[in-house]
Design goal:
By secondary structure, the chain is of the alpha+beta class. Helix content is 25%, strand content 17%. The strands form two sheets. It has a four-stranded antiparallel β-sheet with strand order 4-3-6-7. The protein is elongated.
């Protein structure tokens, strides 16, 4: 049984390492989700991964976050939103690889640039990053990770501040777990 313990601890160590890399992105940096921000430029060069979060900070009375299909993103249509948020602080966890599309549903805001495309890297480590929306046909399917809004929509308000530099939200607990596992292995072995 004593020989099994190091294997179990190693398995825990490997599993704990993945969430340690999760990053929190504040969309638009210090400007937040508002008009007058180039969200294509903001997303350029960023690699979004499964487990990362997008934090939309905005005036809930004047803006919204609408997750839409590629076609609705291109046409700036919020009438068929996959998910809709108006709470002023919206946290969206990226749970699957693929491209996700967000717009502001307030008339004229999307057309003036208040829209975001995020491509989440696949588990195989292929390059992700954000790309501008590609032209789409009217019958195009919704994003691959789209789920019915009523079934799984989760909005979380975090009390700690996040930055565009993307801080690891799970880094501290994972660090303690790694430390505990290393100490345990040292004491056992």
């Amino acid at each position: 049984m004593a020989g099994l313990l190091p294997c179990v601890l190693l398995a825990v160590l490997v599993v704990a390492a993945a969430p340690a890399n999760a990053k929190d992105y504040t969309v638009g940096d210090s400007l937040g989700w508002t008009t007058g921000v180039d969200y294509t430029a903001w997303a350029k060069g960023k690699i979004f991964n499964i487990g990362d979060t997008l934090s939309f900070q905005y005036n809930g009375a004047g803006h919204s976050v609408e997750e839409v299909s590629a076609a609705d993103h291109s046409s700036c249509s919020a009438s068929n939103s996959l998910r809709s948020y108006k709470d002023g602080t919206t946290i969206i966890t990226l749970t699957k690889p693929g491209t996700r599309y967000f717009i502001c549903g307030t008339t004229g805001h999307c057309a003036s640039g208040m829209k975001l495309t995020v491509t989440v890297a696949s588990l195989s480590g292929s390059s992700g990053g954000a790309r501008p929306a590609k032209p789409s046909s009217p019958g195009e399917e919704a994003p691959s990770d789209a789920e019915p809004a009523a079934a799984t929509t989760t909005t979380t308000t975090r009390t700690s501040s996040t930055t565009s530099g993307a801080t690891g939200s799970w880094a501290r607990p994972a660090t303690w777990l790694l430390f505990f596992a290393a100490v345990s292995l040292a004491l056992i072995g």
